Amino acid sequence: MLRGIRNASSNWVGKTIMMIVMGVLIISFGVWGIADIFRGFGRSTLASIGSTEISIEQFRQTYNDRLQQIGRQFGRPLTPDQARAFGIDRQVLQQVVAEAALDEQARRLGLGQSDEDTMKSILADPNFKGTNGAFDPNRFQQVIRQFGFTEQRYITEQRKVALRRQIAGTLTDGLAVPATMLQVASQFQNEQRSIDYLKLTEAQAGTIEAPSPEALAAYYEQHKAQFRAPETRKIGYLAVTPDSIAKWSEISDDDARKVYDERKDKLSTPERRQVSQIVFPNAEDAETARKKIAEGTSFEDIATERGLKPADVDLGLISKADMLDPAVAGAAFALPVNEVSQPVKGAFGTALVKVAKIEPGVQPSYESVAQTIKREIALERARAEVQSLHDKVEDARAGGANIVDAAKTLGLNAVTIEAVDRSGNGPDGQPVKTLPQGADLVTQAFNADVGVDAEAISYQNGYLWFDVLGVTPSHERSLDEVKDKVEARWRADQVTSRLRTLATELVQKLGADGKLADVAPAGVTVQTATGLKREGSTAVPADVVKAVFRTAKDGTGQSQGDTGTDWFVFRVTDVTVPPADLASADVTKLKDTLLQRLTDEQVGEYIAWLEQDLGTKINQQAVAQATGAATN
């Protein structure tokens, strides 16, 4: 059971990415309208909506994936405590319940989608198209396998998404943004303000003497939680990928030359020619034009006589294989430069062809491409070897060996990380450099435990195994261990406190009619920022902008800057509300945004009603278990 849970956790990142690929309808739910009922659940059931049940494992997968997704955006993993503080557990619960409600309603309404329509949407998905712009079956299989989908499961998920869209589309058909709303929103968004301001920095805080031992000890006691050592885990992992086991240096020249000979045509750059053609409706017209050219009329003049522009006759610099008409291609690639062909009977009529430029083809020597070919051969052989190694590693682990011992037995190199916290940092507070890139190993390890046999993770077309080898719980550090950090934090708090007090005093001195220049501390000059908007302004920090837009014209205020060592005192000197140009590109974009919000709100209200009508039950104990708020 533990193995299944870990496997679900490790693969769900694929599910989320693929749901994005499928174009999942993303709904902003503003109301928490789910009934809170605690009885009547099976041991593995987290929620039920009508006859549809959501398992603990299903929710855990979605929740872990959301944490990983946000972690990638922030550049570091999000801890379960942080996730719950941000309300991500509630958001994910709303999402899975809403999707289940729509699926249940689709069944209740008898909605369906044919296999043919489902396949059409898959074939049209740009994520599955190859370099030629057409659907690539190999790419399709590669992508869905990479993210843990079978073909049938992917088709099933795609059909569910389509049915949800049918319901949502019916609800929002004809929805429009009222002109009054659009005008008010545009004026709100484009309102501009100008300010004069003083920027107070650490220099204005004055001299701050070092704290006495007693003061530092007291500060530490009051803020002890901020200096705790985080929980760390000792992790052993093994990555087996084609890149990691490919040995291109062992590929013989005989093998490489064989591939070179087989791929000569693909490796070479074909001859290209600048080709122009004039197509005539019949052979007689073409013969007449060719005689004129023989008598001195230019090819270009013939084109002009027929009402053709240069772009109508120029095929560009192309290879023989790129030309659609084989007959015309044969004639064009037999001509000398600046010669005009005899009439050529082609697939689209009789044509005259002219070549303006010849760019010779290039056949690379074996020596110039040998290393590339050897690497390709090595990777191809390594891909076959990966699966064999996978089976051997699994056999060794099934015998009770941890991943480090299993790797040693097979002659592979495992990596041991002595200590890493949830943020991916070591005991020194710096990022652990030996973590595998792109695997989100830290989150996986903190969802496992010592002795838990975690499933292999799909990684770079191969596999990654890990074991938690030890856990060091979070614990208090002594003052001596963190004295420098405590003193730095104490000093920063002192600076912040002094600047806040100074800013308050300056605002009081300004009153209604005072001038910033008259109250500015020594060394601080009055600065000006104009054209500030609620969003996107960078002249002053975002918190200052928010304070400015809470202040009336000619009013004064203060705000902390980006850090506690920057503080701003300002006066609003101008407020401009431009008229709304409903035809402008910006307003059109705003209209689309408002329409999406109205759509989300309408669908959200429908789902809230649907959940109540179908009967929704939530096992909060199971939710707490899945999100780490309670022990198993």
Note down, in words, how this protein is organized:
With 632 residues, the chain is α+β, with helices and mostly antiparallel strands. Helices cover 48% and strands 16% of the residues. The chain has 24 helices and 15 strands. The strands form 4 sheets. It has a 4-stranded antiparallel β-sheet. The chain has a 4-stranded antiparallel β-sheet with strand order 9-4-11-10. Helix 2 (56-74) packs across helix 24, helix 4 crosses helix 23 (585-614) and helix 11 (253-262) packs across helix 17. The radius of gyration is 35 Å and the shape is extended.
Sheet with the most strands, sense and barrel status: 4 strands, antiparallel
**Class by alpha and beta content:** alpha+beta
SS element count, helices: 24
Q: How many extended strands?
A: 15
Average pLDDT level: 84
Strand order of the largest sheet: 12-3-14-13
